[in-house]
Amino acid sequence: MTTNLKAYFPMIKSRMEVLKEINQNAALQAVFNSWEKERQKEFLDFCTGVRGVKILYDSFFKEIANPETNPQRLEDLLSVFLGRKVKILQILPNDSVRIADESTLLITDIVVELEDGSIANVEIQKIGYAFPGERCGCYSADMLLRQYKRVKSKRRKKFSYKDIKTVYTLVLFEKSTEEFRACPDQYVHHGEVLFDTGLKVRIPQEYFLIPLDIFKRSMHNKPIRNKKEAWLSFLSFDAPERVIEVITKYPEFRPMYEDVYGICQNVERVMNMFSKELREMDRNTVQYMIEEQQEKIEEQQGTIEELKEAAEDKDRELEDKARRLEDKDRKLEDKDRIMDLTLVMIEYGQAGEVKRLQQDPTFLQEMIEKYGIK
Question: What are residue 209's phi and psi, to 5 degrees?
Fold first, then answer.
């Protein structure tokens, strides 16, 4: 079987054709020469079909999976994971504050309303954010609240909580976080709220967390067995053999690859897209390192606080012990004084008053001072 994709996508240009276009344009030549050799090779390989295009490049994915121009593609992806046929009713606006804060690590973040009124948030991350569970919970809750406000405003007095539909959060990680490595053989994690008593109360939130790096490792030397694996392979692999396997078993993926290679026909455009990806990769790496360091700092601060609390507990324990010893010493001293006073008082004919020494602290102190007992 051929390993060059040009046999399957005839529009793919040859290496000579691509380099000729670059060398004939001084601006393109300057950009190309500014790249490292490894990046030059990567660019030429996917433009000429030696390798498949990395679909998760931001510009490529947004072009081929745009729900405004090709809603059926996102509908198919959602149908595979939700386990039912879905149709997109409309695209909903994103949370602009969230996008502004977190866009560096996001490939895409699409929120759509489905035909039955449920909401689906499809997010793809180049590098997983810290605390993925907490983060997903926050944004799922945010979408649920936004749905509640929108539906209540629309239905007014007719509003019922039964009008609230499920919010689906589907997150694909190109590079997953440490939590996912605890499940090295699992790459589709589906979660929803269930009660341990069997109580049938619906909480309208579901989650699908999909680490693509773990999927790639799990598929080593294995064939694609179903549509779900075909979608994940489409998003994960750039090996020509996998691309050919995907379009052979599921021909509906061929038009998406054709769209990608259609983009590659415009060398200037695809070079600009690739340059943007390289800049994003650098920013992503920096952001990831910052988040990793921040997490380590927080862990260290937590450890320091624990050690500080343990030291304070130890100090309190030592202080209590010191107080107990002081009390013990005081009692021993009082006992010695009583014994000395007893002998003195017997000598001075006050034997009848000896018993008061143990019963009356004031009398004890008076006798100590009277007879000069130290």
Answer: -110, 120
pLDDT score recorded for residue 289: 52
Q: Is-contact 278 39, C-beta < 8 A?
A: yes
What is the rounded distance in angstroms from the CA atom of residue 282 to the CA atom of residue 289? 11
Alpha helices in the chain (DSSP H): 15-23, 26-34, 37-47, 58-64, 71-82, 96-102, 132-155, 212-218, 227-236, 240-249, 254-263, 267-347, 356-359, 361-371
Token reading at 28 = 């393109």
pLDDT at residue 61 in the model: 84
Tracing tokens 């919970």 back to the chain, one arrives at 137
Lookup: tokens for 214: 């773990």
- Locate 54 and state its tokens: 């990395």
AA letter at 193:
V
Exposed (0-12), middle (13-18) or buried (19+): which is 298, by Cβ within 10 Å? exposed
62 HSE (CA, 13 A, CB side): 10
Select from 242, 170, 158 the least CA-distant residue to 206. Answer: 170
Residues 106 and 293: their CA atoms lie apart, in Å, by 20
Mean pLDDT by 10 residues, the chain (374 residues): 78 94 94 92 93 85 87 95 94 65 63 93 82 89 93 93 95 91 94 94 96 95 96 95 96 94 91 84 55 63 79 85 81 74 73 74 76 69
Partners of 124 in the beta sheet? Answer: 108, 172
Annotate 65-88 with DSSP letters as a single string. S-TTT-HHHHHHHHHHHHTS---E
Burial class (CB in 10 A: 0-12, 13-18, 19+), 121: buried
Structure tokens at 133: 């569970």
Model pLDDT, residue 3: 62
Q: Which of 243, 237, 239, 290 is nearest to 105 (CA)?
A: 290
Q: Contact at 8 Å (CB) between 80 and 231?
A: yes
Assess contact for 191 and 209: CB atoms under 8 A. yes
Burial of 353 (0-12, 13-18, 19+ CB in 10 A): middle
Q: Hey, what are 283's tokens?
A: 């920013």
pLDDT given for residue 98 in this prediction: 54
Rounded alpha-carbon distances, angstroms, from residue 55 to 70, 166, 171, 277: 16, 29, 16, 12
